[in-house]
Queue: 2 jobs
Job 1
Amino acid sequence: MARKKRNVPGINSSSTADIAFILLIFFLITTSMDTDRGLARRLPPPPERNQTKDDNIIVKERNVLQVRLNKDNQLMCGTEYISIGQLREKAKEFIKNEQDDPNLPEKHRKNIPLFGDVMITEKHVISVQNDVGTSYQAYIDVQNELVAAYNELRDELAKAKFGGRKYLDCSEDEQKAIRDYYPQKISEAEPKKYGAK
Amino acid sequence: MGKFNKSGKRGMPELNTSSLPDLIFTLLFFFMIVTTMREVTLKVQFRAPQATELEKLEKKSLVSFIYIGKPTPEFQAKMGSESRIQLNDKFSEVSEVQDYITQERMNMKEEDQPFMTVSLKIDKDTKMGIVTEVKQALRQAYALKINYSSVQRQ
């Protein structure tokens, strides 16, 4: 008949959906949506082989905050037992040394861009020592509190100096100045073997 | 009468499915983009410890993983219930960590090698002894950027 046009027969595409489904299911299964997060830390470089173990870096006692963890996950800071909740305040007090207390780390004059000459506790060290039997969660708790102490101090400084902004909202230069003001100094001693099972 | 023709069966009009593949393809592309292939099957039990001061792990291609934990039940008969290290797909000893890091570093592009990060996925009940040994091995291998994998505390 003249009025009916013949169409070109289309390719049967009803199975493309199935093919796409199979691919979709494959990616669904292999997918892991969780973004990895964690505490970022930096290890010190390995000791030189030929380097004799000389302790010529004498660290004054007042500059060191000893944090110890024993095999029962008990926490000791300086000379007293404390709970994990107290550690953050302890560390902040130690790093800051507001009143220039002779028992807290000594202060040095340092010229930092954006701040000028300031007195900072540049030489402080927080020394974390754990036992072989310490549980990993307790160790992470301590690390977390110490990092939190630094973060809070840096936030406080940023708020005071750079117009109420948080440390992470500051510009690159400002962040560097703040990092110079509160350098992160957490050292990890070799674990003690006593009390191991 | 033409109007009430009962001879031809009407049936249900068919649903037009010609755009279904397009829909599925959109979903497929979404998953293809957000996907990162799970590289290893876990042979150790891993429950992340909790913390609050977390940082995101950037660029997945620069990250190597080390798992430490108790072997999963099907491996406990063979491996015991002490904490073990898993590198790639097999149980390993501390002495193999250094080789593993070197191997991983070789697989990276040269300009990326200084930014290599090691993510330590350690079960929260692990004792620190084995963790410290691994950390010493990482120091020896000059893999100094590490990340203790943990989850946000509620």
Job 2
Amino acid sequence: MPRFLSLADAIAEYVHDGMSLALEGFTHLIPFAAGHEIIRQGRRDLTLIRMTPDLIYDQMIGTGCVRKLIFSWGGNPGVGSLHRLRDAVENGWPNPIELEEHSHAAMANAYHAGAAGLPCAIFRGYLGSDLVHHNPNIRSVTCPFTGEQLAAVPALRPDLAIIHAQRADREGNVLLEGIIGVQKEVVLAARQALVTVEEIVDDLRAPSVNSCILPHWTISAIAHAPHGAHPSYAQGYYGRDNAFYTAWDAIARDRESFNAWIDQHVRGRSA
Amino acid sequence: MTYTTQEMMAVAAARTLTNDDVCFVGIGAPSQACNLARLTHAPNITLIYESGTIGTRPDVLPLSIGDPELCETARCTVSVPEMFQYWLQGGRISVGFLGGAQLDKFGNINSSVIGSYAKPKVRLPGGGGAPEIASHCRQTYVVMAQSRRSFVEKVDFITSFGYGEGGDHRERLGLRTLGPTLVITDLCIMRPDPQTKELTVTALHPGVTREQVQANTGWQVRFAEMLETTPPPTDEELSVLRDLQARTARAHAQSKS
């Protein structure tokens, strides 16, 4: 059974400098509250893994938590660049970061392989793409039956997975619904898993016998974090704050306005 | 009705789609074109977004690839590994939409870096789903506003493979799909030459000259012998498009916090 902890205690206990960490959620259910707590606790040298770094990794990169990023699409969806990610890559601010870049298909397959206990993922991909020349972890294998050359990437096995979900029951079973992304895979691939939830309830109210439920014995710790995905969203609880995603472009474009925003909205200091 | 070149691009792209198409839709111009087709002549088109939503019918255009509207109006929503494994790699998609920062004359697309990869002048978002959309969809359509900066002789980086160096380069890599068979811009429509695979202008939008197309293209442009003129947008196409854009702007301006 997972431990029920406050968010601050959970991050203090499970997130350590230098570890590999995946905060997942494909547009939906992005664990922003957990990311903000990591920023407040000043963790350093993290290897962050995420298909779409999104605003949460832009914030963690801009506050100096990150040494390496493994990713497949690093933009602000529908808006433009992640300016903090760009500043780190182009100018080394606040520190240089190492990139390991993949395609979505590769990352999704690599989490799937991690969950399945395989050393690598094999799929048909990267054909003709220059990404293979810049990422030594993109290799190929020959199908023993047909002779076809297929792409291979190492399985993703983060030290810790953090996801946000709609609710957990008091035993610690977790229910997700809506766009479920790669969350089941990342929890089963990671060595430990921390889940933040909108609600802790007596009855999960699973909508179907086929609902996406992570049984309590797959999870290390649960923290109650209502509104913990904002400005991403939690289907059935609140919508995506598209106005904030749009506003982030101007906030993050400039180092000073970014620092001021972090101080006020994450660290809770007045400007 | 008078119309903008952006509206002409959206309408021209929408017209290429049919009720039988299963489209892998990207955010921005592709999403606008696909939903315009669905709201006009192709009500039964299947729209798929890489977040896992299959057969979605959003009332407003999504800002992101995974907006709530997409899931709420979908026939079903699957996980992201399933989306890339069964539906895309499995060969279920008839048309994939692509765009990027740069396109070259053989339909290769760069959405990764301007300059060198190790020391980029501009770090772009990257490939996301595009490298495998480019190889697994039966064919791909590119929707992109045209300029000398974006339509270049040679891309700085091939994120998504089109026809490579032209000719039979796709076949030599073992690709069995058709590649970028159609490029729709704000000025014209281009299709690959059947042999060389070099993009060739087959239709000009109304009022656009060959000189204008050349002035906005970084390579020596070829024009088809039988050069057509795109029919202008109809009043119905324009009013449906503008309603959709107005609904979308209203919805995205509302903060949910």
